[in-house]
């Protein structure tokens, strides 16, 4: 009987539990199929919330929300689980007219901001807009050293894919501000 | 001898041809003739045929695509030396060679060399207006309905009409064209390769025959079959609808022209339409393409200029795109491009008509306010991969050789190229596009955990990114190694190797390209 219980425990540990790996562990190099990239140090939580900043006479509101144990699947059948932050943003002009509306946070195919890297002081989000000719880049949010309710924002624009029928030109395709700016928690 | 050749070239090639007789068929046992695929080396052994070939070719063995392609800049076509048919019948020989144009065309074109008296060879361009059903039939060596109404015969551009007219001094000249097809026997597409001797595996060959004549003195005509200016109109069956230049035929005429003492109608051409139906998976080997590319002086100059740029503090990407020069594919046109503040990457517009790009990423830089170094991966970005795939999609739509498409990335850690491993251009799903972008940032992340990361890890991560997105079988990664420069050879051409991920995805192997 003891042997049976011991065997069941071993089986449970072997097959019943997803291996947990550090949040920033590199899925391409170091991890095996089915790993769980867990936010064991709860870094992501610090970035959750609604953040606002101003640039060029406009306002940007970024909403960040943490999702735990989210399943990522790849075309070849590989998969892993990750704790991530998904983000949405809205841009308004000085009259409060919405120039860029929010998009759903929980639709991971169309969400525009998704965390890729995090530590205790900064969060990096991938910016991908599949509906704007794959314009993409990365957003870096760094905690202010002087104000815990503020984040320093930086956007590094990568590029976009010029395909036939892309309705945007190079100057209008980018939606996120390329300025460095300060975001304040609401 | 040269005069004699000129005479024949002028006599028969320059003329063409309007319909003189009705199409007719007859069938023979294949034993009375043969049709088989031959190699270019075999073709070269026929010195008389080669003499004609050299007259019309500029003999520029093009570096553009591969060593199996020969480019003729005057006639603006390439000849695929892998696709040559020799026809022998009644002691006469004809060669048929597939022509490829550097621009999109609906025509199927063959260079046909006909053996004339004294064993000299006369070149013709056979331009067929075939739909997909006809092409399938041609591939299967079946009879194409209304064949001669779909055929326009012209001469190569660099044969001089005036010379001919002076020499020939005649008004009407005829040739008999026999287009072969398989009547019985096994005649599927693989038959062209035939048995082990390369014989055309038909138990009986049919010939659709028509005598076609050229008559001087016609009025001006419209263009036909994509041929303009000095073309010669040919039609059969009374349905061809136009002529070119001063040699217009009468579409309604079906009766033979009046007998002419000078008519040379004993010339007989035996051919069959060679079509360019690219077999699935068939592609010029990437190594051959890369080696050929490395022989291009301008390409090497651009490559080395980017290698030097690696020492500069580039804020944006910099590079060149190679565009298709539709009038002369032998001369690649490299256009310099840079990224900008809003998009660091090179942007290639569809209107650029690009076949490839070669670029270097921007250098790492400090971000003010963030006090962190923004790092750039020394490997292709997701945008690079997708741009490369987009170039290939455009290439396929234009019916251009997919093997020409390339993406190259020059960095201080290595010089790499993306090439297609087969002719299947992936149509990326939204999820694949997202995963490529997202996965690329995983590669960038390597630079944050270890700086600089081992380049082998960067390469492995990139190969795994391709694999996760089911692209490993289609998109190959190649790495260049550069021999040491010398004063005599300051820009040595690179040696290429394919980097291939292992089955267990834990490593990659390096497979050198043979020069």
Q: In words, what does this structure look like?
A:
The complex is a heterodimer of chains A (186) and B (515). Chain A has one helix at 2-15, and strands spanning 20-22, 36-38, 49-55, 58-73, 79-92, 98-100, 113-118, 122-129, 135-143, 150-159, 181-185. With 186 residues, chain A is mainly beta. An eight-stranded antiparallel beta barrel of chain A has the order 3-4-5-7-8-9-10-11. In chain A, strand 9 and strand 10 form a beta hairpin. The longest helix of chain A has 14 residues, at 2-15. Chain A is globular and about 75 Å long. In chain B, 22% of the residues lie in helices and 29% in strands. Chain B has helices spanning 2-13, 40-44, 47-56, 132-139, 161-168, 286-293, 297-309, 382-397, 430-449, 455-468, and strands at 18-19, 24-29, 33-38, 60-61, 69-72, 77-89, 92-100, 108-115, 121-128, 151-154, 172-184, 204-215, 267-271, 318-323, 333-338, 354-360, 365-367, 372-374, 406-411, 414-420, 475-481, 495-501, 508-512. In chain B, strands 3, 4, 5, 6, 7, 8, 9 and 10 form an eight-stranded antiparallel beta sheet that branches. Chain B has an eight-stranded mixed beta sheet with strand order 15-14-16-19-20-21-22-23, sandwiched between helices. In chain B, strand 7 and strand 8 (108-115) form a beta hairpin. In chain B, helix 1 packs across helix 5, helix 8 packs antiparallel against helix 9 (430-449) and helix 9 (430-449) runs antiparallel to helix 10 (455-468). The radius of gyration of chain B is 27 Å and the shape is elongated. Mean pLDDT of chain B is 72; it is low at 1-21, 58-67, 161-170, 188-194 and 216-265.
């Amino acid at each position: 009987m003891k042997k049976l219980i011991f065997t069941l425990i071993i089986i449970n540990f072997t097959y019943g539990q997803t291996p947990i790996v550090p949040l920033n562990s590199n899925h391409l190099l170091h991890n095996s199929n089915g790993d769980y990239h867990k936010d064991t140090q709860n870094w992501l939580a610090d970035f959750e919330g609604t953040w606002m900043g101003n640039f060029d006479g406009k306002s940007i509101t970024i909403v960040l929300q943490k999702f735990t144990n989210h399943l990522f699947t790849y075309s070849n059948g590989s998969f892993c689980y990750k704790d991530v932050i998904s983000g949405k943003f809205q841009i308004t002009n000085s009259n409060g007219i919405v120039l860029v509306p929010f998009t759903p946070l929980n639709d991971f195919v169309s969400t525009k901001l998704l965390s890729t890297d995090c530590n205790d002081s900064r969060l990096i989000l991938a910016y991908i807009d599949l509906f704007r000719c794959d314009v993409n880049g990365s957003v870096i949010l760094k905690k202010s050293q002087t104000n815990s309710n503020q984040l320093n924002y930086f956007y590094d624009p990568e590029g976009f894919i010029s395909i036939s029928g892309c309705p945007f030109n190079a100057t209008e395709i980018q939606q996120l501000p390329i300025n460095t700016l300060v975001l304040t928690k609401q | 001898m040269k005069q004699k050749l000129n005479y024949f070239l002028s006599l028969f090639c320059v003329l063409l041809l309007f319909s003189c007789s009705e199409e007719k068929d007859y069938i023979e046992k294949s034993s009375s003739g043969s049709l088989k695929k031959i190699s270019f080396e075999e073709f070269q052994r026929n010195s008389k045929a080669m003499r004609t070939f050299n007259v019309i070719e500029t003999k520029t063995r093009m570096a553009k695509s591969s060593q199996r392609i020969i480019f003729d800049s005057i006639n603006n076509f390439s000849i695929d030396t892998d696709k040559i048919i020799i026809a022998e019948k009644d002691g006469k020989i004809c060669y048929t060679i597939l022509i490829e144009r550097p621009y999109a065309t609906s025509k199927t074109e063959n260079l046909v060399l006909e053996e004339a008296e004294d064993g000299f060879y006369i070149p013709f361009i056979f331009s067929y207006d075939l739909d997909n059903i006809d092409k399938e039939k041609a591939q299967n060596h079946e009879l194409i309905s209304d064949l001669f109404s779909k055929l326009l015969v012209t001469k190569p551009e660099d044969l001089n009409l005036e010379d001919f007219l002076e020499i020939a001094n005649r008004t009407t000249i005829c040739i008999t064209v026999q287009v072969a097809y398989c009547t019985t026997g096994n005649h599927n597409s693989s038959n062209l390769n035939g048995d082990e001797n390369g014989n055309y595996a038909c138990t009986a060959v049919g010939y659709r025959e028509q005598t076609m004549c050229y008559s001087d003195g016609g009025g001006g005509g419209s263009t036909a079959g994509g041929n303009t200016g000095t073309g010669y109109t040919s039609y059969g069956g009374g349905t061809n609808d136009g002529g070119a230049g001063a040699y217009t035929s009468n579409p309604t005429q079906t009766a033979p022209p009046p007998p002419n003492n000078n008519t040379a109608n004993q010339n007989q051409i035996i051919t069959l339409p060679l079509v360019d139906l690219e077999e699935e998976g068939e592609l010029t080997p990437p190594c051959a393409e890369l080696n050929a590319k490395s022989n291009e002086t301008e390409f090497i100059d651009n490559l080395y200029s980017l290698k030097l740029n690696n020492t500069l503090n580039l804020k944006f990407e910099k590079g060149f795109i190679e565009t298709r020069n539709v009038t002369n594919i032998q001369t690649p046109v490299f256009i310099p491009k840079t990224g900008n503040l809003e998009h660091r990457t090179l942007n290639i517009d569809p209107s650029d008509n690009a076949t490839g790009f070669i670029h270097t990423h921007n250098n790492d830089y400090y971000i003010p306010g963030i006090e962190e170094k923004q790092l750039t991966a020394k490997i292709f970005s997701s945008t690079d991969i997708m741009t490369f795939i987009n170039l290939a999609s455009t290439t396929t739509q234009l019916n251009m050789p997919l093997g020409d498409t390339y993406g190259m990335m020059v960095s201080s850690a290595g010089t790499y190229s993306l090439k297609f491993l087969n002719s299947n251009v992936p149509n990326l799903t939204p999820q694949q596009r997202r995963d490529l972008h997202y996965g690329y940032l995983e590669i960038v992340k390597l630079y944050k955990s270890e700086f600089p990361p081992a380049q082998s890890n960067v390469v492995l991560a990139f190969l795994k990114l391709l694999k996760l997105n089911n692209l490993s079988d289609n998109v190959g990664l190649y790495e260049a190694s550069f021999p040491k420069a010398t004063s005599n050879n300051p820009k040595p051409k690179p040696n290429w190797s394919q980097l291939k991920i292992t089955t267990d995805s834990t490593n990659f192997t390096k497979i050198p390209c043979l020069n």
